[in-house]
Structures are given as structure tokens and as C-alpha cells.
Amino acid sequence: MSRLPAAGGAQLVVLRNVWVHKGGTPWTMALFSVYEPVLYLLAMGVGVGALVGDVPGIDVPYAAFVAPALLAAAMMNSALEETTNTVYGKLKFDRYYHSLLVTPITVRGMVAGELLWAAARALVTGVGFLAVIAAFGLVRSPWAVLAVPAGLLTAFAFGAFGLAAAGYARGWHSFQYVQLVMLPMFLFATTFYPVTVYTEWVRALVEALPLYHAIELSRGLALGELGPGLLLNAAYLLVFGGVMLAVAQSRWATLMAR
Amino acid sequence: MALIEAERLEKRYPGTDFTAVAGIGFQVERGEAFGFLGPNGAGKSSTMRMLACVSQPSGGSLRILGENPVTHGRALRARLGVVPQDDALDLQLTVRENLIVYGLYFGLSLKHMRAKSTELLEFAQLADKAGERVEHLSGGMRRRLTIARSLVNDPEILLLDEPTTGLDPQARHILWDRLFRLKSVGVTLILTTHYMDEAEQLCDRLVIMDKGLIADEGTPRELIDRHVTREVLELRFPPGEQEQAAEKLGGDVEILPDRLLCYADDGDAVLARATELGLRPLTALVRRATLEDVFLRLTGRSLTD
């Protein structure tokens, strides 16, 4: 008699995803995930950076200012991609999770497993992109190494959000609403300039966005500008992710009980 | 002790006033093949989901392998095998990988599953397809793989929801043969079907469900003896003449949309009488009564909706 898998079988859901991806090595995965942020880094950081010179009030080249924000956004996108499109396809079309229902894997285990996988996927992206930043000579502080674990917190927050979204989605078109939020958030949540450019009320709005906190955390560590504010940013992501995870768990429990 | 004991078992879905299962009782003994027959919407699949410890009963009591599925669902699922109606195989894995990875979900080791998958592939006659992607398999092969997958944990009870729906006759016969083999080594089979020949072939005992209730229970032979006569005379008439003919003929007659079924112990005698009465059917056939006749008698009148 075998023993029931621990943790609701979350690690087995991760293992299955690793197995499916065994054709692509972590390096090819990283290559695909860093492709887009590297283009942004070249166009905005290096290209536009040549026009703006140093950022007023910040004592670093513009590219070094943008790079940690792109790192946070890249890890966010990796986690979100795995938990929205990939998970939704497995839910609706492969009926993968339904096939797990009759095994000792629990619904909580499925959700936790997909979230862990999303974080692992983001980790590969983060390590890959950090290597690119280092190669460009944009690493300003040894603390930059911690920007990757900080990105895992970002991946947790957005992965949990993605799982909740996949649970509520009524079709592929539902994810267009997610994009409707994600694109402006990427453009305006201080990725390309400091929050001080905004007027008072816009600033309050931007500071309420999860990506803002992800970028603050990543940038603070990458530029070696440490302060207690970073703990607040981390706490925000932790709470946001925790709430989203609770929403996802409850939604999936209902969904799978049908 | 029976492997499964259900009393006044109910399933209602929250947010609707639909009652899928309206209070049914049955027992399944070790080693038997037990069938749920019924038209679509009779409550078969809802019952199977409760037996698979996937959905919770809304009322009544259910014990599986002596345990309560609500409190011991996870441990029970580890001891059951389930073949769902839609195979829900992992399309991104090969045939063998489907078996191996599924075994891991049950807490079995990779080493054990490598050996076990070979044995199961042999059983499912899929050994030469081991490295293929699932999407390249035919419907019959997929279903055999789903059955092989349900056996990774050597289940004490195998639940099959419409195991041969959508398969061609050859594929069905291969599948039945595999299920017979499982039964012969002591696996308890519980299946739903709306194919009467399948029920007669496979089931030692069955219940006929209609509108969430059990209409009757017994062996196929018992049900035939109880509800229909030894023989059935089937008569076809031109459209519109059926009712008249049935009235003229009298006796135990069931009017179906396309034909009359006359129940009698001697079908030829009834046919002779029909001819004497001046009835001229387009076709006439005397045959032995089957489970389908029982099914139509017990559920037929509701087929109109």
C-alpha cells in the first residue's frame, strides 16, 4: 500500500509540468522569457537612455534604472502566463484537473502546485534576465542578487492572481480584461520613470498597484538603495498574493465540485 | 460486508432545484459486476461521482469499503479506479508517461511505475504504442489506455462511466474482453451504460434508474422474467395505423414511435391471430425478450421528453 502524497500532491503537479517541459531545457525557456524584456532594455534603457542621460535625482544611468523594473515585470509575466493561458487550457480543454479529482490529489494541492510551478518558471526567467543585466554592466550593487528572490514574491502575487482569474474566466476572451489592466500597469507603474513625475492623486493611484511595489522592491535592491520602505513593498506583495491565493482556492473548490 | 452500501442516497445541486438522485438504495458485493442502466438524465453519472468520492451526497448514507466517503474521500480515492466518460488523458504526455505520471499521483514510486506501466500496456494491448502521443490514438485505444490508467493502484473497485459509448463494434468487443479479464481476477466492476447488450454481457446484477430513482433491481434474467414475457412480437405498420392495429389486437401491447411490441409467451400464436384479424403489418418479427424490453417498459413512457 502506497502512502498518500503529502501537501495534497502539489509537488506532483509541479513534477508533471517539469516532465512536460523536459523537451526544453531551462536555458531555452529562459531565452524565450528574456527575449521581450531584453528588447525593452535595448529600446528604452539603451536607446531612450542615450537621450535622457542620467535620471534627475537618481545617480545612475537610465538603463540601470529601467533594468530592475523590467526584471520584476518579466518575472510577473512568466508567472501570469503559466497561471492564466496554460492553466485555463488544461482546465477547459484538456480537463486535466478533472482527471486529478479522482486521484488522492486535492484541489488545494492542484492550486498550490500550479502556483509553485509558476514561481519556478519565473525563477528561470529572473536568473536569465539578471545574467543579461550583468552582461550589460548594469548591476550597481551586490544586493542585486536579492532582486531575484524578491521577484519570486512578485511571481507569487501575480501567479495567485492568475489562478483566481483562470477560475473565473468564461472563455479566452476573459483574459483580454486581464491584459486591459496589465499593459497600462506595465507602462505606468514607474517602469520607465520615477513616481515623482505624477501629480498627487495619480501618484496615489500608481502606488496602489501591485507592480509598483514589485518594481520598488526590485529597484531598491538592484541599486543598493536599502530602506525600511522595501519591507513595506514586500509586505504588500505578500498580502496581495495571500488574498489572491485564498480567492483562487475558494473559487477552484467550487469549480471542481460541480 | 458489502463493498458499497447506499441508503436513501440523494444528490441535489446547490443553486438549482434539480434533484439528480432522489433517494436510492443498493449494495454491491465483492467481485460482482454491477450496472446502472437508465436514459440520459436518470442520475447515473451523479451516482457515479458520489461513488468516486468526487461529489458529496446531499442526503442519505453511503459507505464505500466500510468508510464514509465524505470524511475519508482521499484515502478511499487511493483505493478506487475510475474510468471517466471523457477520457481526460494527459495530451502532452506519451502513452507510457500517462501511466507513470498518473501512478505518481497515487504516491507510487517512479521505479514501481516503470515496471507497472509495462504490465498495464500489455494488458491494454498498447505495448507497441508506448512512445506515441495520446492524440495519435484511436478512440478505442484511448479508452483502453484510460482503463489501464485506472488500474495503476490495483483498485479494489473499478468505476466505469459509459465505457463503450462512441466506440465501434470491434473496439467494444476488445474492451468487454478486457473487462471480463479484470472481473475474473476479482476486481469489482461498477458501470453505467445505456447499451442493453453491454449490460446483459457484463453485469451480474443491475439497477434500472429513471428520474433519479431506481425503477427495479435484479439480474438481467430476473428483470426479464419479472417485467416481460418469454417472447416479443414486433410489428411495423404504415405511419398512423399503429394505434388502430394495437386496439384491434388487444392484449399486452406497447406502442413505440416506430413499431408495436406484443408481449406473449408464444409470439407465433399472436402473429397468427393478427393475420386472422386481418392485420397486414409491413414487417413481423418474433424474438426472445431482452433487457431492452424491460428498459422500455420501465422507462419508455418518459422517453418523449
Automatic annotation (TrEMBL), chain A:
**One Gene Ontology molecular-function label:** ABC-type transporter activity
Membrane-topology descriptor: Multi-pass membrane protein
**Any GO CC annotation of this UniProt entry:** ATP-binding cassette (ABC) transporter complex
One GO BP annotation is: response to antibiotic
Keyword Membrane belongs to the record: yes
Q: Which InterPro entries match?
A: ABC2_TM, ABC2_TM_bact-type, ABC_2_transport, Nod_factor_ABC_transporter
Mind telling me which residue stretches traverse the membrane in this protein? 30-53, 60-76, 122-139, 145-165, 177-195, 230-248
A Pfam family annotated for this chain is: ABC2_membrane
Q: What is this protein called?
A: Transport permease protein
Q: Which residues form the ABC transmembrane type-2 domain?
A: 28-255
Q: Where in the cell is it found?
A: Cell membrane; Membrane
Family per record:
Belongs to the ABC-2 integral membrane protein family.
What does the record give as the organism's lineage?
Answer: Bacteria, Bacillati, Actinomycetota, Actinomycetes, Streptosporangiales
Q: Which PROSITE patterns match?
A: ABC_TM2
What does the UniProt keyword field contain? Antibiotic resistance, Cell membrane, Membrane, Transmembrane, Transmembrane helix, Transport
Q: Has the keyword Repeat been applied to this entry?
A: no
Automatic annotation (TrEMBL), chain B:
Q: Which InterPro entries match?
A: AAA+_ATPase, ABC_transporter-like_ATP-bd, ABC_transporter-like_CS, ABC_transporter_ATP-binding, P-loop_NTPase
Positions of the ABC transporter domain:
4-236
Keywords from the UniProt entry: Antibiotic resistance, ATP-binding, Nucleotide-binding, Transport
Where would you say this protein principally sits, based on its record?
membrane
State the GO CC annotations: plasma membrane
**In this record, what's one Pfam family?**
ABC_tran
**What membrane topology was assigned to this protein in its record?**
Peripheral membrane protein
The Gene Ontology biological process terms listed for this entry are: response to antibiotic
Which family does the similarity line name?
Belongs to the ABC transporter superfamily.
List, alphabetically, the PANTHER family matched. Answer: ABC TRANSPORTER ATP-BINDING PROTEIN (PTHR42711), ABC TRANSPORTER ATP-BINDING PROTEIN NATA (PTHR42711:SF5)
Q: What is this protein called?
A: ATP-binding cassette domain-containing protein
Q: What organism does this protein naturally occur in?
A: Herbidospora solisilvae
